[in-house]
Amino acid sequence: MAQKTIELEVARGREMGVDGNPSLSPIAPFDIAEPDMNTEHMLINIGPQHPATHGVLRLVCELDGETVKSVVPDIGYLHSSFEKLGEYRSWNQIVTLTDRMDYLAPLIYNCAYVMSVEKLMGIEVTERCKVVRVILMEMDRIFGHLLWLGTTAIDVGAFTPFLYSFQERERIYKLHESLTGARITTSATRVGGMMADLPEGWTEALGEFLDTFPDTLAEVHQLLTRNQIHIGRTQGIGAINGADAINYGFTGPNLRAAGVDYDVRRDRPYYDYETYDFEIPVGEHGDCYDRYLCRMEEMQQSVGILRQALERLPDGPINVEDPNISLPSKTDAMSDMESMIHHFKVITDGIPAPEGDCYFAIEGSKGELGMYLVAEEGDTKPVRWRVRPPSFVNLSVIAKLAEGHLVSDLIMINASLDIVLGEIDR
Amino acid sequence: MTDKKSGSGLDAVDEGPISSDASSADHGGDEADASEHTSVAALKQRFADAVVRHRVYAGGQHVVWIDPEKSHEILSWLQADPDHHYDMMSDVTAVDYGNGRPVNVVYQMFSTVHKRELRLRCELPLDALEIDSIVDLWKVADWLEREVFDLFGVTFKGHPDLRRILMPQDYAEGHPLRKDFPLRGRFSRAEQTRRALAQDVERFYRAEDLSAGHIPQEVAPVEVGTLAQGEREGNS
After folding, report:
1. Domain of residue B124, residue span
2. Number of folded domains that form chain B
3. What is the mean pLDDT of each run of 10 residues along chain B (236 residues)?
4. A393: which chain B residues are within 8 Å (Cβ-Cβ)?
């Protein structure tokens, strides 16, 4: 197996214990109040309209002085009942709902959804389509991590990485736009293939991005990784151990930061990920700093996967050649009688599904992104379409992570979880 | 049947989605071969009377329907037994087929040790939507079960904090993901607007609401009262 696990070279301060005791971090925080001083507890409401909550999240905190005694997150402000809407739509119409969930990495959601439909129906996509989807998913992993990087750095007072990361995001936005016509709501995939093949010059443009992006990443590393303020704000904050992380449902970089070596790309491989040469960063302490390191390294690894994928990108058709699944080209549909009939049949009748259900998980930018579909024999709409939301599950742990920390640490913990409210509330 | 199901867009927003055909209530197909999946074989041997049926869908995904009465016992065994060790509860959700058919609660599990997936489903009749909570086994089930309760109305016995999570706490129209729930809601648009306008905005910032969940035991009632007005005790 090509994938290896790398232990991150963790830049701990000398005084830092493995147990993640915050009072020993390089910049010693102000003495945290004794837990049982019996001072008056205070209820503080943060959000839902607050930039530090990264969306319309509301956190109700019970404070003892500045120490968080407990946190009750309140969500649902952005609830759009996507799953209910999906029950009224045909298989292909649902694609547009998926990118509105995680607008920070929309292509991953597009791909995950159609992959689960294909799994349910037993459709095997073409080789080119597989590699193209791997490219899109890895590109959006960088895309999602970059947003997390910028906003999290702002939350601990570093403004520069935000500018760097959004400059790089803008380049990916342009790639989105030239591929799909949209910057955020991409809706690039269809059951059995893609909305369109890669346009001319797209791979070269991505290649240019890959050539210069690692330099930006290195600069951000210089700004943050050994930055005393950043270390003081993140090391030992919001730590969780591996067993708890699994039990509480952490997935993705959050879980790997806690020392659990689990990555869907390697442990339940799809799209030939086992043939790509990449490494899976695993942290040790499970705190905000390790989550930061994991994501930084993942971006680096994604660059490597993208380079390999561009190299092996085969020619050939991008859609499956089954007239019951893919639409004919527009020219064919307008000029050829049979193509027009196929077009008409696919649009009006839809694609029939077999009896059964299907859970398909991929490694999204935020964790294990699962799509669960239930259909009955011949259904052209799902009986149930369920998204296993990684951010939703990751956010539910915040009450445990924040307990005993300061309010300012709560902001850092919330940022380090990398949540997106569009997908939490769905 | 096909005629009703096809048709594009939102042509039935004032009705619930088309209910599934009751004829396929046994979920089609024949009993699958349990020997392909170690855990299924073990389940069938150990809990012979609790395993209702076993199917393989989507090219090798094993689904086992179990008796909801025994669900907690079976799940705790699957988590604890070293031969199975499903330490990761990926998802807890539910499926409503409509037409009076039972609501299915779905557990999607993964074992990080054995790299094995398993899906369990429990059928709950519509007049008894109750099942044991598994928060004591997997903490991740806390919010997932709250979501199922919110959207399907399934009660999880023993859940420490079972209240709505995505819909507002005072939502009066029922459970949105049930098949008999119309896409536009149960109330008319006029009634929904009337209710929205009649809401007391301050209500959502009362301390009783803020302290929903884990806080109330620790805050004295007097304190709660003063906090409600945005004051601190002793300042007035």
Report:
1. 27-167
2. 1
3. 43 56 60 79 87 85 90 90 89 89 91 90 90 91 91 90 84 87 85 82 56 40 38 39
4. 140, 143-144
